[in-house]
Design brief:
mainly alpha
């Protein structure tokens, strides 16, 4: 039996995340300082490389004045 290749992960940038962040006049650094997380974590969430835990997803959505579904529509099943 040969090795089975796994499906490549499709990384979808979260343009809505960036749009809302920029509309508030916040840089990734500024948002990270406000939410007490690292700038690299915000960057990886925005670029679709990381997913926040549920409680943090709600915190980000609330801060940006939107819903979790709107902000992370790529995670909807």
């Amino acid at each position: 039996m040969g090795k089975r290749k796994s499906d490549p992960r499709i990384i979808q940038k979260r343009l809505r995340f960036k749009e809302l962040r920029e509309a508030m006049g916040k840089s990734q650094r500024g948002l990270s300082l406000e939410l007490h997380v690292s700038e690299s974590f915000i960057r990886s969430i925005e670029n679709g490389r990381s997913n926040p835990e549920l409680h943090f997803a709600f915190k980000i959505a609330s801060y940006l004045g939107t819903t979790v579904d709107d902000l992370f529509n790529d995670l909807a099943g």
